[in-house]
Structure formats: C-alpha cells, structure tokens
Amino acid sequence: MTPTWVQLAYLACAVCFILALKGLAGPRTARSGNLLGAAAAVVACVIPFLYLELDHVPLILVAIAVGTAIGAVGARRVQMTQMPQMVALFNGVGGGAAALVALLELEHMVGVTDTLGVDPYNWFVYAATAFTIVVGAVSFAGSAVTFAKLQDLMSSRPVVFRGLPVAFAAALLAAVVWSVLTVTSAALWIGVVLAVLGLAIGVLLVLPVGGADVPIVISLLNAFTGLTVAAGGYVLGNTVLLVAGTLVGAAGTFLTLLMARAMGRSVANILFGALKGGSTLGAGEASDRPVRSAGPEDVAILLGYAAKVIIVPGYGLAVAQAQHTLRELVEVLGARGTAVDYAIHPVAGRMPGHMNVLLAEAQVPYEQLKEMDDINGEFKQTDVVLVVGANDVVNPAAKTTPAAPIYGMPILDADEARQIVFLKRSMRPGFAGIENELLFDPKTTLLFGDAKDSLGKLLAAVKAL
Amino acid sequence: MSEPIVWLTIFVLSVFVGIEVIAKVSSTLHTPLMSGANAIHGVILLGAIIVTGTSDHWFAVTIGLLAVVLAAINMVGGFVVTDRMLQMFSVKRPAARPASRPDEGAGER
C-alpha cells in the first residue's frame, strides 16, 4: 500500500500540473506556469526513491543523467525555426517510453497469482496495458515520420501508395484483436507484437499527411502520448501519472481541434484527405508559366514611394535569418513616411504562433505585428504588400479552389492590395505543395533570391532613393 | 489496484479540467502550449523509474533503463525548449510583451 504522505505529495504535483497548464494558456503567466510544471515533475520523480526500495538505483540515476543531458543540450541547440520537429521528437520519445513501461509492467503481471492461485488483475488492467503499448508505439513512430517530414529527411508532401488504406485498416484491426488476446492471456511476446503493430499504425497514419498539416498531427500525437501516460498511470496505480496524462490528453485533443479550426479544416480531412487521392496531392514541381520579375531597384521604387505597405513574413524569412534586415528596411521606410505593418497569419511558420516566436526573437516591435482579423480589412487601401518567404497564407486558392488542400483556410487578403511583391527563392510551391495563382497575377512582381540577400539589396536601393 | 470506478472518476474529471484550463488560448501561444503539455507527459519518467527499480531480469532492466533515458529526454527537453520559446516574448521589452495587449486583440483564433 502506498503511504498516505506519498499519495498527498502526488496530489500536490497533480495540482501543480493543472496550474502549469492553466498558466501556459495566458501570455503573462506562461513562463512561470512552465517552471511550476517543471518543478512538479522533478518532485514527482524524486518521490519513488524516498519510499520504495528500488533496485539498480545507480544505473537509474545514470540513465536519468544521460536523458537529461541529451534533452537539455538538444533543447538549447535547436534553432527556433526547427522548433516544431523538436517538439515532435520529444513527444515521440515520451510515447516510446510509455510503451516500454507498459511492456515491462505486462512482463511483471505474467504468471502472478494471489494466495488462492487466482490472477489478481482484472481485465481492465490488461486492456489499459495493451492500450498503452499500442498508442505509445503509434505516437513514437508517427512522431518519427513527422520529424522526418519537417526536417526534410523525406518529402513533406503526402505519401500515398495503393493499398495504404487497406494496410492501415488491417494493422488497426490486428491491433484490436491482439489487444483482446493480451486481455485473455498476458505474455511478453504478445506485448511485443502489439508494439510492432502500433509502430506500423503510426507510420501509416502520418505518411499521407501533407506539409502544412503536419503540425496539427504533432499536436494530435501529443494528445495520444498524454492518454498513454494516463493509461500507464492506471496500470501502475499512480495518480499523478493518471492526472497529468489525462490533462495533456484532453488539452492536446482540444488544442488539435482549435488548430484545425484556425486552418479551416477538419481533423478527419487532415488525416485521411489525401487517401481520397486526386487533386489534394498538390504539385511538387516548379511551374514554367510566365511571371513578372523585377530587380531590387524597381521594387525599392515601389516601396519607397508607397504611402502604406504591409509585410507578410513567412517561414522562408526565418530560414534565411533575414528578420534583422527586414526590420531595418521597415525602419528606413518608416523614416520616409511610409506606414508599415506586419500581417501575421495564425499558422505562419510551421505551427500556429510559430511566426510570433520567430519575430520576437528578432526583436521586431510587438505593436507592429497585426493579427489576420485585425489587418485583413486594410489590404484594399494598401499600396504594396511585400510577401517575404510566405506562400500558402496568401494563396487565394484557399477561397476559390475547393479541390486545394488548403481550401477553407482563412488567408491574408494580399490579393486585394494595389501591388504585390513576392520575395522568393524559386518558383517551387510552398509548404502545402500547391501553386499560388497570385504569383501569376498582373499586379504581382517577383524578386528572386535568398530572402536575406534580396532584403539587403532592397535596403541599399531604398536608402539610395 | 483499487476501485476502477474511483480511477474512472479521476479520469473523467481530469478530462474536463484539461479542456477547461485551455479553453480560450490565443493562437500566439499554441506552439509553446503544445510544447509545455508535451513536457508534462514526460512525467512518465516516474513510471519508468518504478518499473526499472522493481525489475530483476537483466533484459527487463535494460528495457527499463532505455525507457528512463527516453522519458528524461522528453521531460527535460520539453521544459527547456518551452522556456526558450517563452523567453522570446519577454526579453528586454516589457512594454511590448503580448501581456500588455488587451485580450480581444490577442485571442480568438
């Protein structure tokens, strides 16, 4: 029986996790909320050492030190632009850990009988164990695939092959059947087969998801891991795992729905849309249709004599590390009397809110950042929209082409401005893999080149006006 | 294992708390919130410590230690990376923090 003080300590940790999550939902309290969560997690992990007579303590401490070092160094070194794949990675290893814990617990349960020779575990414990193994493995493998997509280790476009839906359904069915088997006759090898099925489901689930939708899947897998941790808490009889896991599972599911709504998509469409095939696959090739391009001097004239300019920053800007040059350009334009605003799409960057993080890192004044709903009415009165490294968030196909994968996503109405200037590296389509009709609009001018390089030239040309 | 109904009760109530707690979050904070929630489920480290400390077969201990390493990466990395993101919102410019914005402007997406 767990001592009362331990149960109370776990309760206190669970309350701290609730407060931490609550804190993270508001900008003013987010940082302290995160620190509170970290403190509660550390306390929770110290408790077992105090009341249980654990074996292998030195080895466990070494393993904790190794994991801490890898996690801390990874988290410190990662570029802000690579944040989404880092979150996916951390989530995946968490899911993997939960699956391994459940496997071991299954092994502990095998052959255990009480004094009357009866198996002391009820079927629900076995079911929860099976659930933890399968979903933990799904989260691990799915996160690995999202990481590969975001890190450009594989194509970020939907990967669909003939028979994928059948394979997915078969793996899912097999996992259900096998889980029932686990409930009726627990054995380690059955658990291992379950884990393998979970890995297969994870891969098959994420392969058909295309570029811009990957972050939403990360959020979904995050919720999955939360639920596995909750189920693991039930299996181990540990309340803090149950509460923390459930909190993350519920909050993560809800967050996934919020993010999907911000993109005007349903979660089902995100996960299974590409399976229907056809146009949702998008284009991976550069187009050879004619466009109008210009040199930095021409664009400088456009900008330098405009009364109102809106800048649409995108992931390409962040990748080129051109935020500082852009800020300088905005200052010079401001000094010439031009009104300049930044228009921030909710899903600019690689995740909702990612662009705010990236621009905050570059010290762009927060007052100049305008959210989509606040600025969309202003495009009609805007002389020039300068799109730097963004594509999908200004793509009118979201409004006009029902077959487009981004159809229904609210966009920035850049097409309503008098002039549109795109700074682009090439004609390759954006993250969602679809062509942007706006590029071929007669009002549009393209300035090809690396964003930092182009902005530098633009800055010099505006100064020379 | 105590009463399944007790556990079910805690589970269901936690679901409601989880949803309620983030009901109105601004899209600006979606990324850090996801990352912070991610770090919290790293508390599976606790479970990994317990199963490893109560295993005796060398193979089980090895699997357990692997789980400990993975869970520690999840937990420590998650909290550190979230803190780094949130730092971005508060450095050097107290007046420009999102916190200084009235709620209607920052939220609702």
UniProtKB/TrEMBL annotation, chain A:
Residues 7-460 form the NADP transhydrogenase beta-like domain. It is a multi-pass membrane protein. It catalyses: NAD(+) + NADPH + H(+)(in) = NADH + NADP(+) + H(+)(out). It is an enzyme of class 7 (translocase). Pfam families: PNTB (PF02233). Keywords: Cell inner membrane, Cell membrane, Membrane, NAD, NADP, Oxidoreductase, Translocase, Transmembrane, Transmembrane helix. Its main location: membrane. InterPro entries: DHS-like_NAD/FAD-binding_dom, NADH_DH_b, PNTB-like. The chain crosses the membrane at residues 6-25, 32-51, 57-75, 87-104, 124-147, 159-181, 187-207, 214-234, 240-260. It is found in: Cell inner membrane. Its EC number is 7.1.1.1. GO terms for molecular function: oxidoreductase activity. Belongs to the PNT beta subunit family. The transhydrogenation between NADH and NADP is coupled to respiration and ATP hydrolysis and functions as a proton pump across the membrane. PANTHER family: NAD(P) TRANSHYDROGENASE SUBUNIT BETA (PTHR44758:SF1). This is NAD(P) transhydrogenase subunit beta.
TrEMBL record, chain B:
Its main location: membrane. Coiled coil: none annotated. It comes from the Bacteria. Keywords: Cell inner membrane, Cell membrane, Membrane, NAD, NADP, Oxidoreductase, Translocase, Transmembrane, Transmembrane helix. The keyword RNA-binding does not apply. InterPro entries: NADP_transhyd_a_C. It is found in: Cell inner membrane. GO terms for molecular function: oxidoreductase activity. Its EC number is 7.1.1.1. This is proton-translocating NAD(P)(+) transhydrogenase. The chain crosses the membrane at residues 6-23, 35-52, 58-82. It catalyses: NAD(+) + NADPH + H(+)(in) = NADH + NADP(+) + H(+)(out). It holds the Pfam family PNTB_4TM. The transhydrogenation between NADH and NADP is coupled to respiration and ATP hydrolysis and functions as a proton pump across the membrane. It is a multi-pass membrane protein.
